[in-house]
Amino acid sequence: DVKVTQSSRYLVKRTGEKVFLECVQDMDHENMFWYRQDPGLGLRLIYFSYDVKMKEKGDIPEGYSVSREKKERFSLILESASTNQTSMYLCASSSPTGELFFGEGSRLTVL
Amino acid sequence: GENVEQHPSTLSVQEGDSAVIKCTYSDSASNYFPWYKQELGKGPQLIIDIRSNVGEKKDQRIAVTLNKTAKHFSLHITETQPEDSAVYFCAATSGSARQLTFGSGTQLTVLP
After folding, report:
1. Pairing relation of β-strands A65-70 and A56-57?
2. A67 exposed, middle or buried (CB, 10 Å; 0-12, 13-18, 19+)?
3. Beta bridge partners of A86
4. Cis-peptide, bond into residue B8, ω within 30° of zero
């Protein structure tokens, strides 16, 4: 089975702190994604990557950056966390047919 | 870009009844329409998908229909069971784009 693992299920950070969310997939997928999930807004794409060291902005990239140094790992970075970044963050990788496989999510609270 | 609207936002049905969730999309070039189910505390999981060369697809109690002319697609769940209770998301993507645009989600509750 495909497994997408997010390093932290729950995080609490303070405004201005730097936050790293790590994601690892074990199926050698080329494409990886970071989504943000908020009630009533569905899943919104933050950033995605088609290859190592490659990244593209999604619909809501402001305040975020990403890193893909290895094929299996895709990190989301909040350079200076703000309260409006309190949310559920979902990492995913996609198969060649386009099916997304999600991790279990990282719930971030910024105080 | 693509815009996907999903209705209703909440849906309650009696066990054994059918449930229908509807989505509309804006990009006429979209050609892939998956549905994801998210159980409490878990990430979304694909339950069924349809491509634009097909009008309907079934998998046991779940079916998806697609109307390309009207730009809408629907999820149908028959003989609902309590374990069908979850949040359901529709999504769409075009051939030129490799990322999915999701609807806002439907909280389905199946009442015993």
Report:
1. unpaired
2. middle
3. none
4. yes
Asked if B96 is an interface residue toward chain A (Cβ–Cβ < 8 A), one would say no
The answer to whether B90 and B100 have CB atoms below 8 angstroms apart is no
DSSP collapsed to 3 states, A18-33? CEEECEEECCCCCEEE
Instruction: Choose the mutation target among B100, B101, B107 for the interface with A, i.e. most A CBs under 10 Å.
Output: B100
* Chain pair A-B, CB pairs under 8 angstroms: 55
Alpha-carbon distance values, A72 to A31, B19, B68, B93 (Å): 10, 38, 36, 24
| Type of residue found at A14 | R
Say if residues A22 and A6 touch (Cβ distance below 8 Å): yes
Those residues whose C-beta lies under 8 Å from the C-beta of residue A97, and which sit 6 or more positions away, are none
Write out pLDDT tens, residues B35-93. 999 999 899 999 999 987 789 999 999 999 999 999 999 999 999 999 999 999 999 98
